[in-house]
Amino acid sequence: PAARLIFGTSDQAEGLRARVRALGRAETDVLVWGPKGSGISKVAEVIHLSSARAQGPFEKRAASGLGRAGLAAAMAAAEGGGLFLDEVGALPADTQIALVAELEAGANLRLMAGSTAALDEAAMNADLFYRLQVATVRIPALSERPEDIPVLFRLYAAQAAEQAGLPAPLITDEHTAALMAQDWPGNTRSLMSAAMRFVLGMPGEVTEAAELGLAEQMARVERSLLIAALARQNGRAGRAAEVLKLPRKTFYDKLARHGIKPEDFRR
Question: Taking 80 as the threshold, does the pLDDT of residue 60 lie above it?
């Protein structure tokens, strides 16, 4: 089961694995989207590996600047497998038209597109835009699932140590708290980089966070958990309080202390 390649113990990670398994069983084109550094191409590849086309090729191309000739070559290379176009919204207009024509003519491949921003319907070929709205999968940011940070960091540190030919270093509870105190705007990509620096003895900003002291680190962790709960519940404070098993008054007091507003998370 290729979906196991998506790591994490949070509800969001489990939901992502379930979505990947479901899309693996389908044949429709797929749009994978999420914040920068969240592993969009990796998730697309896992969907491919979960599908009936898993034995076929998986070709990746940057959509920006991809001309019709480049598209034709990519589609030929992806015959019988999958073609991933990164930042599909940047695909030139004439190439979009050519892509739709090939897909509608029955091209023997599965299109997978990636994007770090919402696709602009007005800026895209309408047929391509709507093809990519049929099956979508969103990758949650690390800030929405802080409980996955220790799991992922241990995995990345072990991989980095193996690559560097070094023993895996001890990851203390204090270091884990410092990791969870970070916002990680670069998501898994920046966490992976931090793991490599840690293995090489250059932990950087994580060490700086650890120097804040336990109280400040725990405050940051608490804030990240509150934000994650609100994000998961679309700003429904009452439901978020229930998930965190906190009395409503305590929950609202914590929101006020951290300057968090539930309405900022309503979609």
Answer: yes
